[in-house]
Write the structure tokens for this entry.
Amino acid sequence: FDSQNDRLSDLQHWFQQPQMDSTLSTFVVGDFNESHRGMYAGKAIAWLEGSMGMRDAIDQFAPNIPTWEWPLPLSFKLQACFDHIFYKVDEWVCYDAQVIREGASDHFAVMGVFGVKSKEGQ
């Protein structure tokens, strides 16, 4: 089962909606079920970074910290970086982003601290 094309198609569809005013700042956040590298590397992430000029704050500040974890028998577990905070690099500067590895969910919270990018660059 592979839903990479579906995730990419969904994102492209949402960005074409009338309420997606290109004059307003946009953040794209959440569980993508794909990551930047490895066996879960995905097309939606590549499109956001390549075509939309966005950057993932979690990959920028915490690239090797899993945001998802699933326990298996015998103390094994699956882990991946599936949750992301994408922002427009020409509009925002990210000062920090982290994965909060607490709680009962299989996904951990992600948090970012942003500021408006000034005309001088920061």
